[in-house]
Design goal:
This protein is α/β, with parallel strands linked by helices. It contains nine helices and 15 strands. It has a single domain, classed as Carbamate kinase, CATH 3.40.1160.10.
């Protein structure tokens, strides 16, 4: 059998496998948090863009929320502004916040919009400040082991989501545009806050009653203590993995974000390997997927 015929048969097989998923998810909203390797590797950037545009073309409504930590760090370094972290959070004074807004709301956001548009999409970039999309407040953290406000640590203009105004997202959806959102919010006084992109994606997915929340990562997915990727997990199963310390470190906040979204009404959350080309399409439209699926009841028995 010729290589060309083999490739054609493989393509036909993938298309056939994807059809019931397309039929099931048409008209539904999928929120994708974009970051990690998928955001810097050129081939991964192109495959991500094609995935998002194809989703829109077949009638699914993707919303992209992006990070930009490395890009922020690079610009701060070039400007000789020191980066400090507490519990993994970037301490954000007013000078650093200016850089955050410049990178997230400007450079990175517009690069992603351009990437999607070059791949025949209709993307529009916004920050959480536009249309009062993200109402935020200052994130309060305490020293480890402390339970009193007296031991709070000031990390500057780092925020958490208070509410999401979905009006602007509905306008874009009805106009066939793909929203690309920078995770910056404001409070009632107009102060700007840098917010974790996973958290923003999860909150948006919850308030929209999204079909799926997809978090792109630089690992294969949620793994057990032997390094095996786990999928088809229920809320109860994930809680057990957290309790027995199987989940810890950088994966823990992503899993907690996914759990919160599923508990908040999102049908399923996916933590997937962004190092795999076309990871988003493979996760949504194939039986095998490329990461960890979390739903309320799970696919496996407890």
């Amino acid at each position: 059998m010729s290589l060309t015929l083999t490739n054609a048969k493989n393509i036909a097989k993938v298309l056939t496998e994807s059809l019931p998923y397309i039929q099931k998810f048409v008209g539904r909203t999928v929120v994708v948090k974009y970051g990690g390797n998928a955001m810097v590797d050129e081939s991964l950037k192109q495959s991500f863009a094609r995935d998002i545009v194809l989703m829109k073309l077949v009638g699914i409504n993707p919303i992209v929320v992006h990070g930009g930590g490395p890009q922020i760090g690079n610009l701060l370094q070039r400007l000789n502004i020191e980066s400090n972290f507490i519990d993994g959070l970037r301490v954000t004074d007013s000078q650093t916040m200016d850089v955050v807004e410049m990178v997230l709301g400007g450079l990175v956001n517009k690069e992603i919009v351009s990437l999607l548009n070059r791949n025949q999409g209709k993307a529009v970039g916004i920050s959480g400040k536009d249309g009062n999309l993200i109402k935020a407040r200052k994130l309060k953290i305490r020293q480890k082991g402390s339970k009193t406000d007296a031991d709070e640590i000031d990390i500057g203009q780092v925020g958490e989501v208070v509410s999401i105004n979905t009006e602007i997202l509905e306008v874009m959806r009805n106009s066939n545009f793909i929203p690309v959102i920078a995770p910056i919010g404001t409070d009632d006084e107009g102060a700007s806050y840098n917010i974790n992109a996973d958290s923003v994606a999860g909150e948006i997915a919850s308030v929209l009653g999204a079909e799926k929340l997809i978090l792109l990562t630089n690992v294969a997915g949620v793994q057990d203590k032997k390094g095996n990727v786990l999928t088809g997990l229920s809320i109860k199963q994930v809680d057990k993995l957290i309790a027995d310390k199987t989940l810890q470190g950088g994966m823990l906040p992503k899993v907690e974000c996914a759990l919160k979204a599923v508990k908040g009404g999102v049908n399923s959350a996916h933590i997937i390997d962004g190092r795999v080309e076309h990871a988003v399409l493979l996760e949504i439209f194939t039986d095998a997927g490329v990461g960890t699926l979390i739903t309320k009841s799970g696919l496996n028995t407890d």
